[in-house]
C-alpha cells in the first residue's frame, strides 16, 4: 500500500495531464478519441453526466494539452463578451450534427452520486448476512476511482488560477476526498499550499551572499491569508469558467472561499495551508488502509446516523461526520485485541522523516504502512456494528472523554456533553458544538439499534418481506415501532425535557428582564 503522500503526489500529477470536455448529447466515442489522439497518447478516459455529457481525458504527457489548446478557438463574442482565460475546460460540438449524430455509439457513464436510501434498503434485503449488507453499503457509497480523479482535477483547475499570482503554489484536496472515508456527493475541501516555495529557499544557502525575495510584509499570517483568499476568490468569481456562487468567508476561525464548480459538479471550500487538517486526513487514511472492517463500519454508522437525523449537512448542535468517525476509531482501539493502533503507538514507529512539529504541537506518526503490525482480532464486521451500538449506548459521557492518542477514556477536562480530544491540538474538543439533547438522542438510537440487532428474527422478517439487519436500522424507528421505542429508551429523554424546560425558563426570564428594563 502506498503512503498518503505518494498517493496525493501521483493523483496531482495525473490531474495536471487531464482535460475536461463538454460533449454533444449524441457522440461517436471512437471518433472523439481518434481526434484527441492527434495531440498525444491518451492514457485513460471516462464519460459522466453533469448538466450534459462530459469526458475526462488523461494524456500520457503534459505537453499534449498545450498542443490541444493551440488547436482550440476562443468562443465567438456575438451575444456575450468572453474573458479570454484559456483553461483546460473545453466544449466540443459537431460540425455536421445530422450526419455525425447518426454515427453515435452508446456511452458508458460513470455514476457520480450514490443510490437513494430506499433503493439501498432493497439491495441490502437481498444480501445473505449483515456483514454482506455492510460491504454492499460501502461499495454503493464510497468514492469511485473516477470521482476521485474529478476531485483532483477540480483542485488542479483552481491551481491554474493561483499560479497566475503564486507560480510555485499548489492546490490539494484534504479531508473526505482523500482520507478513504469520503461519500459520493460530499464537498471538496481544498487548500492553497506555498510550502514548495519554502523548499526552494533551503536549497539556496550556498555561496557568499544571503539572497531573498522582496515581498509585501503584513502584521499577521491571518491577514495575509485573508488577502490571498480575497484575491483568489475574486479571480474565480470574475474569470473562472463554471465557478459560481462564490462566497468569501474571511472572518471565520479558518478563513475560506466557498464556490460551486459546475463543470465537475462539486461544492468546494478553498482555504490556505492547513497543516494539521492534512495530518488528520493522513491519520484517517492510515486507519482506513489497515483493515477493511474499518471503512465498512464507518460507512454503516454514518449512513445510520444520517437516516435518524443525528448528523446534518448544515452546521449546528448535532454530531459531525468527523466526530462520528473518530468515535468509531476509538471503539476499534478499545477492542480486545485492538483492531487499529493508538496515535501514540503510531508515533513510536515514526522515523526521522516522519518527525513533524506544527505550531509547537508534535504531529509525528509513521507514514509507511508496512511498519504497522496487522491486528490479530478476527471479529466479523456485523459483530462490531452491534458492539459499537452497545458500547456507546452505555458509555459514561458525563464523566469520560474520548482520546485517540491514548486509546482510552480519560476524565473530561470541561463540561461539554460530548468531549473528543483533537488528536493533534490536544487543547481542543472536536465535538464542542454538540448539545445535551443531541447526545441523548444518539444514545437512545444506539440502544435501540443494539436491541434490534440482538433480538430480531431474521428468518421471520425475510418471510414477511420486512427489512432485516442493517436494512432495519436504516428506517426511522418512530415509523416502524413507536411504542416499543418509547419503552426501551424510557428515562433517557427526561434529561432532554428538563434541559429544554430550563432553557425556556431562562429565555422567559431574560425576556421579562428586558421588558422590565424598557
UniProtKB/TrEMBL annotation:
The protein's UniProt keywords, in alphabetical order, are:
Magnesium, Metal-binding, Transferase
GO-annotated biological processes: RNA 3'-end processing
All copies of the PAP-associated domain together span 383-418
User: Poly(A) RNA polymerase mitochondrial-like central palm domain: from which residue to which, for each copy?
Assistant: 131-288
Report any Pfam family annotated for this entry.
PAP_assoc
- Taxonomic superkingdom: Eukaryota
Transferase is among the record's keywords: yes
Coiled-coil segments:
none
Listed CDD domains:
NT_PAP_TUTase
All copies of the RL domain together span 3-71
Q: Which GO terms describe its cellular component?
A: mitochondrion
Q: Does the keyword Transferase apply?
A: yes
One MF term from GO for this chain? poly(A) RNA polymerase activity
Required cofactor(s)? Mg(2+); Mn(2+)
Q: What is this protein called?
A: RL domain-containing protein
Q: Native species of this protein?
A: Calypte anna (Anna's hummingbird)
